[in-house]
């Protein structure tokens, strides 16, 4: 996206209001699923952000560490109850290595798309694998991409239409790079607010290949956090990866 600065995507202009737009109502289901995959072990969240998932998971009884690129997002986490109890490393989730391993590494809410090349996304899988205990699992939640099927690879969706405001989603997709340039446009009495982001879109099969490169294998896939079957009609997938055995093909 011309003029797009990834550093601003979750910086001071975005982080203070991030929870207002990111809380989806499925946090409890997410926490229960993740807690069930840790046993008595610990968890590591890639892109821990403001602690939307990590803090309730920690309250549920799973110790959680995190990696986060944006110091401003971590400031929001620290301001919440229990926020100072979480160990967070500041850096790129595809590169930063912490000094311990975990029963669970997880990455939710399409956030792997913030890595804008296939190489970076493969490194993310490799970094997840490097942080896993021998029996640990990597859980990835991501939307099933549909932008490539939209006419001319560009579209405008009306996300909200009300008497007091309109929210539009203006998108253009590049099928060569698989990058979706997306501009959320809010129009209200105070003026126009722009919230840009770029995402590299990948489907489940491409992620499965990335997992194989990283020495992992798919062991479970669901259409949601309550164990819904993953079908052709699923709008997202929750995929669980574990280490491949040395004898596995």
Explain what the structure shows:
The protein contains seven helices and eleven strands. The protein is α/β, with parallel strands linked by helices. Helix 3 crosses helix 4 and helix 6 crosses helix 7. The chain is globular and about 50 Å long.
Briefly characterize the structure.
This protein has helices spanning 6-9, 18-22, 27-36, 54-60, 71-78, 118-130, 204-213; strands at residues 43-46, 64-68, 87-90, 102-107, 132-143, 154-161, 165-174, 179-188, 191-200, 216-222, 236-243. The strands form 2 sheets. The protein has a 7-stranded mixed sheet with strand order 3-2-1-4-5-11-10, with helices on both faces. Strands 6-7-8-9 form a 4-stranded antiparallel sheet, with no helix packed on it. It has 249 residues and is of the alpha/beta class.
Strand order of the largest sheet: 3-2-1-4-5-11-10
Please bin the fraction of helical residues: 10-25%
Shape: globular
Mean pLDDT across the residues is 91
SSE inventory with pairings:
Blueprint: H1 6-9, H2 18-22, H3 27-36, E1 43-46, H4 54-60, E2 64-68, H5 71-78, E3 87-90, E4 102-107, H6 118-130, E5 132-143, E6 154-161, E7 165-174, E8 179-188, E9 191-200, H7 204-213, E10 216-222, E11 236-243
Parallel strand pairs: 1-2, 1-4, 2-3, 4-5
Antiparallel strand pairs: 5-11, 6-7, 7-8, 8-9, 10-11
Helix pairs in contact: 3-4, 6-7
List keywords for this structure.
single chain, 249 residues, alpha/beta, seven-stranded mixed sheet
């Amino acid at each position: 996206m011309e003029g797009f600065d990834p550093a601003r995507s979750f910086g001071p202009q975005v982080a203070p209001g991030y929870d207002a737009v990111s809380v989806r109502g499925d946090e409890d289901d997410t926490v229960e699923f993740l807690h069930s995959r840790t046993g008595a072990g610990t968890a590591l969240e890639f892109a821990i952000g403001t602690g939307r998932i990590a803090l309730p998971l920690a309250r549920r009884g799973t110790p959680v560490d995190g990696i986060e690129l944006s110091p401003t997002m971590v400031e929001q986490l620290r301001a919440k109850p229990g926020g100072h109890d979480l160990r967070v490393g500041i850096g790129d989730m595809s590169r930063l290595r912490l000094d311990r391993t975990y029963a669970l590494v997880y990455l939710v809410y399409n956030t792997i798309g913030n890595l804008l090349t296939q190489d970076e996304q493969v490194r993310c899988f490799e970094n997840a694998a490097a942080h896993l205990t021998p029996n640990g699992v990597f859980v990835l939640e991501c939307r099933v991409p549909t932008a490539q099927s939209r006419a001319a690879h560009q579209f405008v969706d009306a996300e909200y239409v009300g008497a007091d405001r309109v929210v539009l989603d203006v998108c253009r997709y590049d099928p060569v790079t698989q990058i979706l340039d997306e501009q959320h446009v809010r129009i209200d009495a105070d003026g126009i607010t722009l919230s840009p982001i770029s995402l590299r879109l990948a489907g489940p099969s491409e992620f499965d290949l990335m997992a194989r490169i990283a020495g992992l294998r798919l062991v479970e896939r669901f259409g949601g956090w309550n164990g819904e079957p993953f079908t052709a009609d699923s709008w997202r997938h929750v995929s669980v990866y574990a280490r491949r055995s040395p004898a596995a093909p």
